[in-house]
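User: Predict the complex with protoporphyrin IX containing FE.
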Amino acid sequence: MVSNAVPDHVPPEMVRDFSLFTSPAMQRTKNGDPHLAVACVHDGPPIFYSPCNTRDGRGTWVITRAQDQRRLLQDTATFSSHRSLFASALGENWPLIPLELDPPAHGLFRSLLNPLLSPKRVMALEPAVRERAVALIDMISASSTSCDVMKDLAFPFAVSIFLRFLGLSDGRLDTFVGWGKDLLHGDGIKRIAAARTILAFIDELAAMRRKVPADDFMTFVVQAKVDGRPLRDQEIRGIGVLLFVAGLDTVATAIGFDLAYLARNPKDQELLRSEPGRTVLAAEELLRAYSTVQMIRVATKDIDFEGAPIRKGDYISCATMIANRDPAEFECPNTIDLAREDNRHTAFAYGPHRCLGSHLARREIVICLEEWLSRIPDFRIKEGTAPITYGGHVFGIENLILDWS
Ligand code: HEM
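Assistant: Here is the predicted structure with protoporphyrin IX containing FE placed in the model:
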């Protein structure tokens, strides 16, 4: 944990008692609405300093306006993504690729990886995605009239799609779900153990695909070249780990927040069930209203940004859940309108680091909602239970027990 004293260069009047980690609505709360709680920052100044706004307790500047976030995220020379977050937890120093690289290195890897998750590739994956969603939902509905959506559907679904992407069967699904949970939600020791296990698995898979190539992601990576040379082992790790972590909690919590919303809003639930053609547009609105990712950048030099004296080394937060509730960008931002058009949300970020997996994520979410609504009748939150929400770098929901008895 680092000290969260406010640095001397931050004017006291720019400090605000707000944090995606420590504010009350960000704690694990029954029936909480962390997105609405965050939206209140728009009543205040467009940029402020939060003294404790990362998992390890660092202070960050907080950019609230969507327009300012877009400007900042484009300026990668001043606002760097280089942090080695995953590796530093292991006492090492290598980047997640391409997430923690800045241009020009970022562009080299991004162009290499773009085709792997292009709309065309995602279309080819779609039958497998649908088949997984159907299998999980059928299993749930065959055995009960209620379930914990996060445990029984959302998380295993997201992990299973990652396994398909790697060219692996679901044989070890439970093991991978366990690794993912420990890595993303375990305590310090569990998290580090899971990180080491995942690295060992990626190394092993890379070695196997070098010996016996297959038609899959890892074979592509071990055979790929950047700048005319093969990838180094650490680069392969940086790509493999990122693809594992990037698509788990993000997709699972999006499905969780969407189904929680529909459980509480039976009219919208019925609308999508009777007119499934509306699901694509509705999913965009739910991505906007329930955005989950806070992006962090590090200043590479001193700069005054919209009146804030940012100094080299300062952390800056561009939280998608804040930008996507900006009243200057969206009419009635706290109203969820499943037919909202012209929805320029930034749930998948903006600029060079725009989510590489957004096409896949969108299809996963829409397919899961379509299949759930066509198979599960009128559902609600089970009486006597309350979903628990929490804040952080990725907002989450747990214990979402739905009932359709
Ligand atoms: C609803 C689901 C998802 C959301 C909301 C989401 C959101 C984001 C955001 C906000 C970023 C930018 C992070 C930053 O710049 O600091 C990002 C980057 C990234 N995402 Fe996603 N993501 C989702 C699903 C996925 C999936 C399914 C995959 C892969 C299979 C994926 C792979 C990536 C990668 C590789 C990057 C780094 C891109 C780069 O640095 O150029 N994401 N995502």
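The chain has a mean pLDDT of 94.
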